[in-house]
Amino acid sequence: MSDAPQNLYAARVPIFPRRVSGYFRRLKWWIMAITLAIYYLTPWLRWDRGPNLPDQAVLVDMANRRFYVFWIEIWPHEFYFVAGLLVMAGVGLFLFTAMLGRVWCGYACPQTVWTDLFLVIERWVQGDRNARMRLHQAPWTVRKIRLMGTTWTLWLIVAMATGGAWVFYFTDAPELARQLVTLSAPPIAYVTIAILTATTFVFGGFMREQICIYMCPWPRIQGAMMDPGTLTVAYRDWRGEPRGRGLRRQAADLRVAGPQIGGRAPLIPMPGVPDTTTNVQGPGDCVDCNACVNVCPMGIDIRDGQQMACITCALCIDACDQVMEKIGRPRGLIDYLALSDAPREAAGGAHIPAWKHALKPRNLIYLAIWLAIGAALVSALFIRPQIELTVAPVRNPTFVTLSDGSVRNAYDVRLRNKHHDARVFNLQAGADSTAALQVEGHDGANVTVPADAQMKVRLYLTAPAGSAPAASDNSPVRIWVEDTVSGERAHVDSTFNGKDSQ
Amino acid sequence: MTKPPKTDDTPKVETTGHSWDGIEELNNPLPRWWLWTLYGTIVFAVVYVILYPAWPMVNGATKGVLGWSTRGDVQMHIEEVDASQADMRASLTETDLGVLDRNPELIEFAMNAGAAVFRTNCSQCHGSGAAGAVGYPNLLDDDWLWGGMVEDIAYTVRHGIRNEDDPDARFSQMPAFSEILPKEDIATLVDHIRSLPGGTDPLAGAGGQLFLDNCTSCHGDDGRGDRTQGAPNLTDAIWLYGDSPEQVTRIITRGPYGVMPPWNTRLSEAEIRAVAAYVHGLGGGEMPTPQD
Predict the structure, then answer these.
(1) If I label A194, which of A183, A216, A368, B98 is the partner at 20 to 30 A Cα–Cα?
(2) Residue B196's pLDDT is what?
(3) Are A414 and A389 in contact (CB under 8 A)?
């Protein structure tokens, strides 16, 4: 190592992943197609909810405070459904990370999916790895400007489509599309599209692996959630080493440490990490062709061991399997392995199938929690009522004496009509109540609540002079609301304050 | 484990020289874009300090060349809202208050605007819940001294009661009977009046004679008061100044003199109408039908 201090800052070294085909690449194409299709097409799905409500299948209606997801409609007071889904997403992340490591990063993370999409465009315009590397090093000729310009234009189109699709989730998509084209959409729509276009373009086209390594908290969090039984992409060093292109090598002592950060960590024994120091007879299966390095979108060498930059996209498995097939060796030199497999397999033990790793008690507990929350949410969804009311007794003042000596209490009543048409609700005091019921601003006790809306009314209960509720401290009262169309009823128990409450 | 481990051929990285229990800290370089991001935030901060209020000085922060301020921002938003409500206010000013309740949109606007006006201007005397206090009428009940229809309430708000500021103020004055009646008669009257809500004939007995001679000209032969002069109904269960013998004696001896200021100098006509509609909707408002 030289004595000159190294630079504090380093420019990004561009990565030019080579095209690869194989099982995991096919799986990733499918996941990419499905996730992108869901993202771009969902806002255009229609769902008939009658004339009073939007017909967009998935709509986050911020202005009217409603979430529409197909037949489900979430009101603000039911936000616990959304909270429950977030908890499920969290527990699901625990489950998948404990079972499969950074599977989210490798397959489903938008950063991975969009970077993959941008790489497809880049490869289509500029050619595969070697062509792109040559182009990168070439001076700025007309051809390079044309190729780069084409690539960036296509990226920009994808980025704009990405930003554009986002805003469609928040308002009627066809209507907004018309407005966007005729430049009459609200400014916030253009601003949102501009910001998301910029982030997609920069993150997918230029930042790529830098997002995962430097900006994203997930790698750190997920790393902490893994255990030795977690399946992750690893290199069977005991099989591959010493590597070389058919060279005979002397039997060598080889120490392979446990987790290495970025492939650069000094070899330090770590508590809890099995020491896989072993004696290996050479030569190994690895022909050092660098196929695994060339296809890696993160630009790392998986043979350096577990490292933070690895998103477990599994493309190196495909690349290595192809090579192993060519040289007539069994596949799986790079494979999904658990860390605990390493010492056992190195010592000649049998391979443990992935599903056996997956069925750890820890994973089953996560799964049980996940299913329990899911079941609770689904049952809550089915039993939630179509009409609801809340009753807030007015406490300022607690009661009013009227001129004939009767005592009146006021209640702020919120009526919720979740039906998709206006309903007439009838308000009643409990059958045992002698109090007369009035609704401010309404004749009688019938209130028309508009479709899919809540309405606040002030309800008066008046107990006759000298009656027990009027004279006593306080007495319980039940307030009923009945849908005069369906006959559905709901009630809330409240309190009536009499003269003695002062 | 018998031999020292061989070094691998990964790039060598300088360490910071710090060592904790043998663990050393690598001195990997930061990405350059990170550095440029840092520079970007510094440039942003400088531009921000020039454009917006930033440095705290003795008498407030530096103004910034854009002249932006949070107060100015609030003022701008208030003006925007004011402008957007101009039509509603004009419509409220023009609509006959008697038929206000036929326009649901307008009544909702009036109720909300009136609630804000009430909290700011009325709650000091009438209470934030409009329940009043001794000497300050409860606006929730169905008892009105000067009338409980929206027009009546609006007039009271506009001109006030017994004030010297507005020639159109509602005015009446109950005399202090300490100068008119002997104490014994006042004591008789107090007992008589306190019994009226219980159904006593206002003109019966010794108290009745005193009532006829001294009170009926304003409170009426039936004791039910007279709204044209703000004379309260003495037969109902509501006592503005309290119903204890001491409280009633005090009122008869000294005479009440409740004052309400005129609000037409401080509130716009639309605000007056809004607060009238709000008070009318508090539970005691009277509809334009004949009163008994």
Answers:
(1) A216
(2) 92
(3) yes
**Domain limits at B214?**
174-256
Distance between CA atoms of residues A457 and A442, nearest Å: 9
For residue B238, list chain A residues with Cβ-Cβ distance below 8 A.
Answer: 401-403
Q: Phi-psi region for residue A28, left (φ > 0), alpha (ψ -120 to 50) or beta?
A: alpha
Is the ipTM beyond the 0.85 threshold?
A: no
Nearest CA among A18, A73, A63 for reference residue A419: A73
Asked if A267 lies within 8 A of B5 by C-beta distance, the reply is yes
CA distance A246 to A340: 30
Closest CA–CA distance from residue B66 to any residue of chain A (Å):
22
C-alpha to C-alpha distance for B198 and B50, rounded to whole angstroms: 77
A269 in B contact zone (CB under 8 Å) = no
Q: How far is residue A206's CA from residue B113's CA, in Å, rounded to a whole number?
A: 54
Give the per-residue pLDDT at A145: 95
Q: Does B143 touch chain A (CB under 8 A)?
A: yes
User: Is A252 in Cβ contact with B236 (below 8 Å)?
Assistant: no
Q: What is the pLDDT of residue B16?
A: 81
Q: Residue A500 — pLDDT band, cuts 50, 70, 90?
A: confident
CATH superfamily, region A387-501: Immunoglobulins (2.60.40.10)
**pLDDT digit string, tens, across residues A62-111:** 888 999 999 899 999 898 999 999 999 999 999 999 999 999 999 999 99
Average confidence (pLDDT) over B97-101: 84
The enclosing domain of B132 has a CATH number of 1.10.760.10
Rounded to the nearest angstrom, the minimum Cα separation between B165 and chain A is: 32
Nearest chain A alpha carbon to B277:
A441
Token readout for A342 is 């390493």
| Nearest chain A Cα distance for residue B76, angstroms | 19
For A360, A364, A416, A487, the CA distances from A424, given in Å and listed in that order, are: 56, 50, 11, 11
Residue A85: count other Cβ atoms within 10 Å of its Cβ.
16
Q: What count of other Cβ atoms lies within 10 Å of the Cβ of residue A502?
A: 9
- Judge if B119 and B247 occupy the same domain: no
